[in-house]
Design brief:
The complex is a heterodimer of chains A (355) and B (392).
Chain A (H helix, E strand, L loop, with lengths): L1 H14 L22 E6 L8 H9 L28 E10 L2 E9 L8 H5 L5 E3 L5 E3 L9 H5 L6 E2 L9 E2 L5 H5 L5 H5 L5 E5 H14 L19 E4 L18 H91 L1 H6 L1
Parallel strand pairs in A: 1-9
Antiparallel strand pairs in A: 1-8, 2-3, 4-5, 6-7
Chain B lengths: L16 H23 L1 H4 L10 H13 L2 H11 L9 H22 L8 H4 L7 H20 L1 H7 L2 H9 L1 H21 L17 H27 L6 H36 L8 H26 L3 H25 L15 H24 L14
Helix pairs in contact in B: 1-15, 3-5, 3-14, 4-5, 4-10, 4-11, 5-7, 5-15, 7-10, 10-11, 11-12, 11-14, 12-13, 12-14, 13-14
The chains are: A alpha+beta (355), B mainly alpha (392).
Chain lengths: 355, 392
């Protein structure tokens, strides 16, 4: 144990800046974490609930002193959660391992520093960043305070400064990033008297965890919690009982960004197809209207023409009739005049000769 | 509102019940605003680390945006799908949508920790993997679109003919843009919950949740237009012109018919959701009963009542049904965001709103009503402006 820890410290000191290159975790394909990134193995079978880690965390992070001292283990009677002044807590879980026999197990609770963090994937200002060293870091200088990260985290590991009116921040364990950079161990790991916490390269910690399970299969559940949960974490857990009994949720192995990438991939589809489709529908409707209008005006024109023709015909007949009437009238008038003339001549033949 | 009414010349009393109540709410709201920005979110809300979102998100944002869907639904129906006989419904719907979105943003100013940083996602760093980035982008763009769609109303009131002419020319473009943006953010509001499969009850969690949110927003928009017209015709009847009153019943019948169809589709989709997750056995649990209340009482029932109302040309029934549908949308959004969210947590860790949160929500809703009333009593919303008749 001590040996491996020393090795790890050395490797950190030597290669702290080694993996700084390389770009972010988002994107397609499978991401198995940064190579050589660091992690912490929490062997809950070794934890006795002494709260040394809590005290160390409080002091290295300069957090306010708690109401009850860290030596008071009666706080373990309640299930506690982290808050904006407490980055880590230890909880006791009474588990019925055999019928009628309850055994107490302890688990340290803090941010698990996912390899593909939900908080980072849902943040609309990219305030969270998974560092190649292991810790997930938060940048308060861009945070808007929407608290979507708190909602998204499957471990309820993030907290918010609800009582800060002007500059509230998201608060959580940083895996002691500043100390890691200095080549020191995280506060909690350094303080643990039971060897329940081991810091080192994630790949090596996985080997150690497997080795412990293999060597003592009765002591452990054959599973490393955090190896694959939502893509894996930088905190790995070993346990003697099912992990759900220790308050760790049963999660899928799919990294969180995969849950939303499907919905996001529909954006270009909507942007690409809707305008074309809608303009088409508009054009069809406009054309329908236009055709209807055209048909209407055609019909009107036709009706007008028909009326005009009828009128003309009527007029023509009327004119014809008038013409005929006039002719008849003229003829009658002529006949009449001739007849009168004839009568006159009969009466006065001389007059007619003169003319 | 206390001054003489320009058109009717009638002096209205100052101490009406409406004025007294709204004044009290506004005073309370201003006090709560002071408390919020001096004491922090903790001073006025029951929000916790485990329940970071309360009614300001569940009601003001999620429900507010869904109920403001009448804007894009009506504009699309009239300007794109050619249903010109509903033209008189466009302006009230657009006004409601614009004010709705505007006050959603106002409500967000209370909710987010540092509201003055709201433009940060656009100007500082773009978190493009976040559904919320899409929501923020779409909502801000759509608010701009709605503002432009709304401008002919005040421009006619002011008599600025040239600018109004320009705004009118943009109608089709803006309508299409409105549908595109609404499709995206209405669905994305649901997609925001895709990240939390272990926290949202499986009957409400579904990979189809974006589709549920989008389809139900159409039903919400249609029902809200009917519901609101029913209220307006009692309150602002003197502001309505003959066209608006005559088209009123046709709008109710037409929109009721559409809502019946959309609700039927939504009901089927919800069943597909249950089938997809194979969650039938959960229907027998208490949460299952609650789920059945939602989809039978507030989806299938209004679907049926709308159909009967349309068949019998019973506008009274349709108007009441719209109220049921609107309630159903409220219920669904609250279920997803609050009631069935964190369902696994022990009872003492669950969220229920602080009275001050309710107070601020009431304050924002009241501001909406006041601005709405200010506009419809002065500007050409329920009637056409005499100088601009037949010109749109």
């Amino acid at each position: 144990m001590t040996l491996s820890r020393r090795t790890f410290i050395k490797s950190i000191a030597g290669g702290a800046g080694l993996a700084l290159g390389g770009s972010a975790a988002a994107g397609h394909g499978t991401f198995h974490g940064y190579p050589d990134s660091n992690a912490i193995l929490h062997d809950t079978t070794r934890c006795v609930g002494c709260r040394s880690c809590e005290a160390a965390c409080n002091s290295v992070n300069g957090l306010p002193a708690p109401e009850r001292p860290f030596t008071d283990t009666s706080v373990l009677d309640d299930k506690r959660s982290t808050d904006e002044k407490t980055f880590t807590v230890v909880n006791r879980y009474e588990v019925e391992k055999e019928p009628g026999k309850k055994v107490a197990y302890f688990r340290k609770v803090q941010c698990n520093h996912c390899l593909e963090p939900c908080c980072a994937s849902v943040c609309f200002v990219k305030a969270f960043k998974k560092t190649p060293e292991g810790p997930v870091l938060y940048d308060p200088s861009v945070c808007v305070g929407c608290r979507y990260c708190l909602l998204a985290c499957p471990f309820y590991a993030l907290t918010y400064e609800y009582d800060n009116p002007l500059e509230p921040q998201v608060v959580r364990c940083t895996m002691c990033y500043p100390r890691i950079k200095e080549g020191k161990l995280p506060g909690c790991v350094e303080a643990c008297p039971m060897g329940a916490l081991t810091y080192g390269k994630r790949d090596e910690l996985l080997l150690i965890a497997r080795e412990r399970i293999q060597k003592d299969p009765d002591r452990y559940v054959n599973y490393i919690y955090g190896e694959h949960e939502v893509g894996g974490q930088s905190w790995l857990h070993l346990s003697a009982v099912p992990f759900e009994d220790l308050g760790l949720p049963s999660l899928t192995t799919r990294p969180a960004p995969e849950l939303t990438s499907g919905a996001l991939s529909l954006v270009p589809v909507v942007v690409g197809t809707w305008p074309v489709l809608l303009t088409g529908i508009y054009a069809i409707n406009k054309r329908k209207d236009k055709i209807a209008e055209q048909e209407q005006s055609d019909a009107v024109a036709q009706a007008e023409a028909r009326t005009r023709d009828e009128m003309k015909q009527k007029m023509d007949t009327a004119a014809e009739k008038a013409k005929q009437d006039k002719q008849k009238a003229v003829e009658t008038a002529v006949k009449k005049a001739l007849a009168e003339e004839a009568k006159k001549q009969e009466k006065d033949p001389k007059e007619g000769e003169v003319e | 509102m206390t001054a003489t009414d320009a058109q009717s010349g009638v002096k209205r009393p100052i101490f009406t019940a409406f004025n007294v109540i709204t004044t009290l709410i506004v005073i309370l709201g201003l006090y709560l605003t002071y408390r919020r920005f001096t004491g922090g979110l903790g001073a006025v809300s029951n929000l916790t680390h485990k329940n970071p979102w309360g009614i300001w998100i569940g009601f003001d944002l999620l429900t507010g945006v869904a109920l403001a869907a009448g804007g894009y639904v009506t504009a699309a129906g009239v300007y794109i799908f050619g249903m010109k006989r509903y033209h008189s419904a466009v302006r009230p719907a657009l006004l409601t949508a614009f004010l709705g979105y505007f006050f959603v943003v106002i409500a967000l100013l209370f909710d987010v920790g540092r509201p003055w940083r709201l433009p940060y996602p656009f100007i500082m760093q773009q978190g493009t993997t976040s559904i919320m980035f899409e929501v923020a982008l779409c909502v801000s763009l759509y608010l701009t679109v709605l503002f432009l769609e709304f401008t002919p109303i005040p421009l006619e009131w002011l008599g600025w003919k040239k600018v109004r002419g320009l705004a009118i020319k943009l109608t089709l473009t803006l309508t299409i843009l409105g549908v595109v943006l609404s499709t995206m953010h209405q669905s994305s509001l649901g997609a925001m919950f895709l990240i939390a499969p272990t926290k949202l009850h499986p009957l409400w969690y579904s990979p189809y949740i974006p589709v549920f949110f989008f389809v139900s927003s159409i039903a919400a928009g249609l029902s809200m237009v009917i519901f609101e017209s029913s209220l307006s015709r009692r309150i602002f009847s003197h502001k309505m012109d003959a066209t608006h009153r005559e088209e009123g019943d046709a709008v109710v019948l037409g929109f009721g018919k559409a809502a019946a169809l959309v609700l039927a589709a939504y009901f089927v989709l919800k069943l597909v959701g249950v089938a997809h997750g194979d969650h039938w056995h959960l229907l027998g649990t208490p949460y299952g009963a609650w789920f059945l209340v939602e989809i039978l009482g507030f989806v299938l029932l209004p679907c049926f009542l709308y159909s009967v109302g349309v068949r019998d040309r019973n506008t009274v029934l349709i108007r009441w049904t719209s109220a049921i549908t609107v309630l159903g949308i409220v219920l669904n959004r609250l279920n997803v965001s609050l009631i069935c969210f964190n369902w696994n947590l022990p009872a003492d860790e669950r969220y229920s709103p602080h009275w001050m949160e309710v107070g601020i929500t009431l304050f924002v809703v009241t501001l909406f009503l006041l601005v709405f009333r200010f506009i419809v009593t002065r500007m050409p919303v329920f009637h056409e402006h005499p100088e601009f008749k037949e010109s749109h």
